[in-house]
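Q: What structure does this chain adopt?
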Amino acid sequence: MEKTLEKITPTANESEGEQRIIRIITKKLEKFDVIPVLVGSTAKGTDLRGDKDIDIFIMFGQDVSREKLEKKGLEIGKAVFKEIGAKYEIDYAEHPYVKGFYKDYDIEIVPCYSGKRIMSSVDRTPFHTRYVRRKLRENPALRNGMRLLKQFMKGIEVYGAEAKVQGFSGYLVELLVIHYGSFMKVLKAAAGWSLNQVLDPEKQWKNPEEARYFFTNANLIVIDPVDKNRNVAAAVSMQCLSEFIIAAKEFLENPSEEYFFPKEPKLLSKKELSEKIEKRGTKLVAVIFRHKKLNENSLYSQLRRTIKSLTDEIETFGFKFFRSGFWSNEKNLSLIILEFEVFKLPEVMHKTGPPIDQDPKNQEKFIEKYKKDKPYVKDGRWVVDTKRKFREIEKLMPEILEERKGFGKDLKAVEEIYFLTGKKILDTEEKEFYRFLGKFL
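A:
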């Protein structure tokens, strides 16, 4: 842990360079009728070496309309980045903001409201920064724990609340360390977590268990110290939570620097990938999309939505798959990959109809629809053995992709459906796809 801290704590030169950039941006913002406030891990001193993110919020009075805040916020952000010669793009949280790229740093200029009343979700962020800074003044040793936990989560790939990861945000990591007291105490506690765990760092709920009924469908509940009605862990997926719990248990049993700095997965050759596919005996299908460059949150949200729609539709036809995944070069090419357990079905399918004691009209409808197949009664219901529309996944996929039901709005252009086999691997110049496929397999 000491060795890791040496590697992840920003150097003096790095911090000085970062502060220079912050001063340049802040000075230019002060020319406008707003209050610039540095927020996030840089402001708290919990950032990691090599992190190139600077978040500056520009605060408007609460008498400013939402429409004007958004319009002026964008105008100010664009003007500042133009003045320093930085490229920029419009990104989105609850409302749009400007994200610029300057001297290898990603700099966000985000409009929000000042004052105690929360008028938009981003208004909480300055309060988060103040809360964590106060806790660090009370106990400076927490800072090392926060940095260690962030790096640990980066190493096991569960760090980040964005749509691509659906994991733990930086603020959530900081709250866990504040709540438990140190990096190791977080891991010891997490090793015993149940799914749907409830944590209330400032004890704002009389009975934290009641939070489960308030924050329904949450995999982890961590009450926000600055807003008792917000779950800081809302973005954490079941997958990321499970991976963190398992990694915590394994690290406690056998601590290793590799959890913080894992080795890069080997880039397998096409031959090695072919052999792995052949041995599995499953059917792999890749759906390839061409699209314009999209905001990353939008891109990965659309990929997740498209996978859900695609798999739901496929299962209605009786095909079963092990798992699914997605990959993107984050420029103009994305793909969804599905691995099928059942990819060829019998000629006939067994279809269940209404119970014999249900509304006679429903029974008549079912009998009329399938009269050629001679419906019969089984276990108190009408059933029929009827011809299946699609027997092979190769025949079904083009039909579903033609309809594009429930697909992300920017993922309508399906370039190709590719069936990967031991003899046929997708041919692309995108090497990172092969790394993804190796990990998927």
